[in-house]
Amino acid sequence: MFTTESGDEIFVVDGHVHLWDASPENTKNKYGEEFIKCFYDYHRLGPDEYVWPFEKYRKYSDEDFEKDIFQNGYVDLAIFNPQYLGDFYYHGFSNLDRADNFKKKHPDQVIANGFWDPRNEAKGLKLLEEDAAKYQLRGIKLYTAEWKGDSKGWKLTDPWSYKYLEKTQELGIKNIHVHKGPTIRPLNKDAFDVGDVDEVASLFPDLNFIVEHCGIPRLNDFCFIAAQEPNVYAGLAVVMALMCRRPAYFNEIISELLFWLGPDRIIFGSDYALWQPKWMIEQFMKLELPEDIAKETGQITPEAKRKILGENAARLYGIDIDERKKKLGLSTGSKQSESKRVTAVA
Amino acid sequence: MAAESKCDPTQMSLEDQMAAVWSALEAVTDPEIDEAVTSLGFVTAVNVVDGDKVAIEFRLPTYWCAPNFAFLMASDMRDGVSNLSWVRSVSVKLCDHFCANLINRGVEQRQDFRDAFPGETDGDLDALRRKFLGQAFQRRQEMLIRYLLRAGYDSDWIKDASVNDLMVAPLDEQGDRLRNLYLIMWRRIRRSSAVEHERAFTTENLEPLPPGQLNVYLRKISAARHNAEFNGVFCRSVLTMRKSRTL
Question: A147: closest CA among A35, A15, A3?
């Protein structure tokens, strides 16, 4: 919970977190080694005082997570988005079991999503059913650049992908988090193309597609697609990190997103342990867009911040914020009217 | 004979040769950022050996950067430097990248992308290159039009101006730079020289600009600039971290 200077309490959902293991014991090959090193370069884009030693960054503890997310990070609910990377790490990089075990310790504060890979074909469909029951899945994370033997990636529009999307829908799982990386076949095409999101979002209007990192580096294509597809959302993981070293660019991006998607379809995510939510949320709450940007796309309101930091994700996952607050022993009730008052004053 | 038309390498100092190579590399851009590979800090080493052999090394912000873009940049560097009259051979080496071997071999053997990555493509890189040329065109056009509007040229002038009108317009240093950047791209998307009587400003599909105020059109094409700048910021930041890492 983040409390504003005026005493307004903001329920915070971190829409993108990990408990990963890239320890030397779990790392299969040089690709796993290079993957975590690349992640470490991104990590160092954040504030210096939050940079960890590389050894800790490879594998950190549940206690680190509890401290950085729940105690210091203002987060009331954290959503795990697994990244398996089975070709790089023996037991996966950010796997379901570790997240699930962690969830058992904090049942009201954690949502642990699953994943699927259409290249597992019929066998994987069955596994998805089992996972859905075993982990009570409410969301799925897809990483289309995952290596698998000779294959260096897949598309949401691959024939087996449709079957998985149908199965996902049938199982009552509503939220699909999509992340693209740069190795999708065919290699001669734009590897970051988000056109396949457009197609599946139209075909599966009852599913929500949260495009992680706002489709970076195809932010412009993403915005055009999201403007047309009401079930496409912007996940702010990675984009938030720009606030540290390039705040002016962060301002431009958040104003673009507000212009194209509006405040109801943008979702905060720290991408922990890449970065920590504490400084991001503190800086975001202070954010005021400069006049020249605000003139074109409007100022970011306290109400928009409240939505982005928690209400939007809560809505997608059917979380009753008042009820959650009660469980956490926090005050409830007049928050809506308070937020309206703050907005009106602003 | 070709050899006779070449400058005698002994006539050029090593310093001049190095400067000529760097200058040729300045014309090579990262297609999605529309900035020179040199100003982005990608080129890590340039050497001239035996008076006429050039060796270039470059590194991208991550081990995982898209191989198609890496291939385009590496071949553009090879071609740009090969065009220098005194250069007999060019080697371009991409370092620390998951596809470094395939890309370096393909560029050395002047393969097209299909042959360098057999079975992993369904064509060459032409369509990709065209797409990103279109984006670079929009980016440069938006910057120039916004500059012209600030300098007092109105929407009607901009919509009707010929290439000649644009070329003779008295602009200050900044305006002149934006105009040059734009006209280079104007030629590249048409694959021809600028013809003086042709319209200076068209859409990327070479159609006249939409009627009415330019603001709506500019707002639309500004997405290309936002995207390129955003990627530029990210690439630079990550590359800085990668270079400073000692692991």
Answer: A35
